[in-house]
Amino acid sequence: MLEKVNISSADLRPKIILAFVVVAFLVGVTGAVGYYSVGTVDDQAQHIADDGYKMDATSEMILAVETQQEAILHAQLGHSQMGERMFTEGDDHFEEKGVGAFASYETSAAESQQPATATADGSHDPAAGETNTRK
Q1: Deepest of 86, 92, 117, 122, by most Cβ within 10 A of its Cβ?
Q2: Helices marked H in 94-125 — which ranges?
Q3: Are the CB atoms for 109 and 50 separated by under 8 Å?
Q4: How far apart are CA 114 and CA 94, in angstroms?
Q5: 75-105: per-residue pLDDT in tens?
């Protein structure tokens, strides 16, 4: 079979068409690999972004705990009013910026998995899965 195919005796037109088909096939394969790779990079970027929100909330919790530790030191040194005020500020910061950020992130992630549903009057029902935007 291969003895019958003689490329040197073929005309120029079939050679150019064959070369074009080979190059087009290689470009198609390269495009498919690139498309798949972009999807993989997008998934990894989303994972990194999710971790960033968690790290931000964790650092806020650490800051709140350090504020409470400083408040305890002030209370031990006899500055009870200042210690109590700082402890309350640290507790509020822990609840709002730390635990609150985790809760809103987890709620947003869970709600983004559910489709939004409309109520009978046409408005969206937040309890039925409306997506919250993260700040």
Answers
A1: 86
A2: 100-112
A3: yes
A4: 29
A5: 888 888 888 898 888 888 888 887 777 777 6
Q: What is the dihedral of CA 105, 111, 112, 117, to 10 degrees?
A: -150
Instruction: Return the minimum-mean-pLDDT range out of 88-102, 103-117, 120-134.
Output: 120-134
Please report, for the chain, the start and end positions of each structural domain, with discontinuous segments joined by +. Answer: 51-115+123-135
What six digits make up the tokens of 51? 């971790």
Nearest to 85 by CA among 99, 96, 98, 74: 74
Higher model confidence: residue 59 or residue 32?
32
Cα separation of 32 and 24, whole Å?
12
SS3 labels along 32-93: HHHHHHHHHHHHHHHHHHHHHHHHHHHHHHHHHHHHHHHHHHHHHCCCHHHHHHHHHHHHHH
Q: Which amino acid is at 57?
A: A
* Cα–Cα distance for residue pair 104/56, rounded to 1 Å: 13
